């Protein structure tokens, strides 16, 4: 396998993984709808930063340690589950508080977003934390990455290149979602709609957290 063929093959696998509905897509869509385009891109870049970290870790063998040690895996798995549940419950609580507010807020831009979310850095950190605290990302890279590193190729460099390919595909996909959402943003900006979105996204996050906590691998 040549370097070019390895990159092309990995791009196909990573591309299929990217467009599969999941936690990352839910977070980016929610950010695009309730926080706006800039915060949505910050969330996406946080997720993609986490992917790059996992790719480098897999290339140097760190994720192999995660897979070999059941204790380390369980610690990260529980931490990730708690983090997702915390995010989800927070969204649901904000939705319940917003229900008592006047309907005049429906026309306000970004009315459903709280001040604590209204910074680029917080949105980026949320995406990064979600990506890094998901041990399944590490297991995926540990299982897949070695298969796409040609014999004799520098592992660290190839790991960075392959993770960058995955990130590029993710950026294209997230950009399509974000700009698509902006086409109907005027309607989505209504506070009542954003409460529904926060409720659904919060429930999805809690569900992912429970699934991760109860997962066997």
What report would you give on this structure?
The chain is mostly helical and 217 residues long. It has one domain (3-214). 77% of the residues lie in helices and 0% in strands. It is built from ten helices and no strands. It has helices at residues 3-19, 23-34, 37-60, 62-68, 70-98, 120-132, 135-144, 155-182, 185-188, 191-214. The chain is globular and about 60 Å long. The two termini are 30 Å apart. The model is unreliable at 102-116 (pLDDT under 50).
Number of strands: 0
Whole-number count of domains: 1
Structural class: mainly alpha
- Please give the radius of gyration in angstroms: 19 Å
Q: In percent, how much strand structure appears in the residues? A: under 5%
Please mark out the parts with pLDDT under 50 across 5 or more consecutive residues, or reply none: 102-116
- Overall form: globular
Largest sheet: none
Membrane topology: Multi-pass membrane protein
Subcellular location: Cell membrane
GO molecular function, one term: amino acid transmembrane transporter activity
Protein name: Threonine/homoserine/homoserine lactone efflux protein
Could you give a short description of this structure?
This protein has helices at residues 3-19, 23-34, 37-60, 62-68, 70-98, 120-132, 135-144, 155-182, 185-188, 191-214. With 217 residues, it is mainly alpha-helical.
Produce the secondary structure layout:
Blueprint: H1 3-19, H2 23-34, H3 37-60, H4 62-68, H5 70-98, H6 120-132, H7 135-144, H8 155-182, H9 185-188, H10 191-214
Give me some keywords for this one.
217 residues, mainly alpha, globular, cell membrane, membrane, Threonine/homoserine/homoserine lactone efflux protein, amino acid transmembrane transporter activity
């Amino acid at each position: 396998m040549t370097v070019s063929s390895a990159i092309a093959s990995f791009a196909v696998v990573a591309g299929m993984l990217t467009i599969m509905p999941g936690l990352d897509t839910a977070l980016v869509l929610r950010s695009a709808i309730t926080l706006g385009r800039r915060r949505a891109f910050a969330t996406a870049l946080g997720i993609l930063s986490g992917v790059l970290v996992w790719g480098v870790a897999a290339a140097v063998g760190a994720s192999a340690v995660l897979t070999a040690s059941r204790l380390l895996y369980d610690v990260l798995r529980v931490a990730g589950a708690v983090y997702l549940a915390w995010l989800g419950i927070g969204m649901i609580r904000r939705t319940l508080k917003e229900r008592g507010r006047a309907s005049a807020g429906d026309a306000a831009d970004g009315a459903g977003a709280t001040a604590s979310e209204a910074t680029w850095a917080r949105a980026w950190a949320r995406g990064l934390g979600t990506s890094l605290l998901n041990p399944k990302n590490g297991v995926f890279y540990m299982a897949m990455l070695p298969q796409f590193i040609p014999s004799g190729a520098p592992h660290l460099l190839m790991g960075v290149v392959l993770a960058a390919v995955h990130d590029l595909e993710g950026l294209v996909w997230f950009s399509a979602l974000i700009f698509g959402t902006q086409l109907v943003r005027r309607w989505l900006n209504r506070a009542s709609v954003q409460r529904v979105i926060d409720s659904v996204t919060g429930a999805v996050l809690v569900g992912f957290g429970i699934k991760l906590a109860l997962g066997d691998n």
